[in-house]
Amino acid sequence: MKTRGLSAAAAVIVLSTVAGGFVGAHSGASQDRLNDRYEVYTKALAAVEREYVEPIEGSRLVYGSIDGMLRTLDPHSSFLEPKQYERMREQQSGRYYGIGITIVSADGQIIVTLPPFEGSPAYRAGIRRNDVIARVGQPIPGKTPRQIAWEETKGWQTEDVVKRVKGPKGTTVEISIRRPGVDTLIDLTVERDEIQITSVRTAFMIAPGTGYVRMQDFIETTDEELGRALEKLKGLGMQRLMLDLRDNPGGPLDQAIAVSSRFLKRGQMVVQTKGRIANVDHTYRTESQGGYTDIPMIVLTNRNSASASEIVSGAMQDHDRALLVGETTFGKALVQGVYSISQGAGLALTTGRYYTPSQRMIQRPWDGAFDEYLTYSFRDQAEKRDHAAADLKYTDAGRKVYSGGGIEPDHFVPGPVEGFNPSRFSRMLKDRGAFVTFAERFTKEGDQRPAAKSAALHKVAPGWQVTDAMVDEFSEFLASERVRVDQAALKNDVAFIKAMIRFEADIDLFGIEEARRNLSKIDPQLQSALGYFEGASQLLAMKRESR
């Protein structure tokens, strides 16, 4: 234990030295103070390892203390353990080799938590959300007939599964899944392939002449994906565009700049960063003429649109390039450097803040414990907020906009959950995954794969609708799950309930684009936004006249 503790302590020293370089602690006196702090820390660490009531791994102590240190700074600076850092880099790169599933370890089981990436090996094999990965195996070399060496996954952590299902492209892995309602395990042979994580998963014509693109996050391939989506829609006759940034948590700054550049003219400012150290201060401008500068445009935002989403939204609004419809964005606009520290670990450290072209500060203030800040997305928004006189800024055309936290839309339309504004009860059902679990009762017509007994009750084809009888069945399902059903909320939210049942079943059976296409037809926030395209056209005309 002592050896591990000293090694971990050294990692802290490396980290602190890097941080010290940021703040310019180069003098002898400053170094002496740092040495004193190291001594306090290492003695505390040694005492805990030596005297605590039970043995504790040194890395756990060190990782926890670094994370605790960073959480005293702001809500977003954080320490990334080696596995977290590797996953983050994988997510940002948008590519890895495996089978394309997202899993979690719960109650000793490995559960698929999200729909497999479309086109991935897992998707082609028919793996669904809530499937349990019961065992993983590999063929035994030289055995005839073919035999599999199985490993039961009970009690495993997610990393135990990940290291077995990842591997070279073209190789295979054997997986047995347990599906609710199916009496026997479902054995699958899945061929590994390159998994391309996408951020633009849906792009289609939402109305005659109107293209729709939903961007779910920003990764290293986002601009490239957006370019392909826009070309596709242009070929389908797109004359105006709705860019949906709802629930988009953001990502790399360079991708936000590249996305904005597609809709702005050469030389226009996208964002400005300001910080404590000189190399953080920078003004980012478009370097070339965008290919879509002259089509009417609506940007959809909500309270969960953050970071890079707010950079794009702010640039579009400040340059009068698009009308923003929806809710005020989250207000997360901190410049963060991600640093590789030591032994595979990483550090996400806030080094500055983002400002829009009109010099609005996007970052929302936080309280000491971050409680109000972190629960913001769950609170009701007001259409109008009070602002200090200093918060008033102006767009290129002289329209009033305000600083002080998030990007306020030009037209406020509430819809915190998939475009709807349901009751607290129905939001709770969504958060607890009730609609996802109920979706197991549906299977598509002609599907020959084993299905849950309950799923056989509802064989559906594209274009199906949720009936009142299905809603009644959903209510009975909730009661069977020991959920105290709020019948009044269920009745008032029936449109939302039906939409979510169909949406989650569509994702599993027909894919995310089909699910999003069907939802868009009844999404109140989106349908309301369609009515503002005349204003978006007038905004463009006003810009032309001012040239």
Beta-strand proportion: 15-25%
Shape label: globular
CATH class of the largest domain: Alpha Beta
**Judging by the overall fold, what is the CATH architecture of the largest domain?**
Alpha-Beta Complex
Computed Rg: 26 Å
**How many DSSP helices?**
18
Ends apart, CA distance between termini: 71 Å
Which percent bin holds the helix content?
Answer: 25-40%
User: Under CATH, the topology of the largest domain is which?
Assistant: 2-enoyl-CoA Hydratase, Chain A, domain 1
How many strand elements?
A: 23
* CATH homology group of the largest domain: 2-enoyl-CoA Hydratase, Chain A, domain 1
Low-confidence stretches: 1-26
Q: Identify the strand order in the major beta sheet.
A: 10-11-12-15-16-21
Assembly of the depicted chains: single chain
The major pleated sheet works out as:
6 strands, mixed
| Overall domain count | 4
Describe what this molecule looks like in 3D:
The chain is α+β, with helices and mostly antiparallel strands and 547 residues long. It has four domains: 69 residues, no CATH class; 101 residues, PDZ domain (Pdz3 Domain, Roll); 200 residues, 2-enoyl-CoA Hydratase, Chain A, domain 1 (Alpha-Beta Complex), CATH 3.90.226.10; 99 residues, no CATH class. Helix content is 37%, strand content 22%. The strands form seven sheets. Strands 10-11-12-15-16-21 form a six-stranded mixed sheet, with helices on both faces. The N terminus is likely disordered.
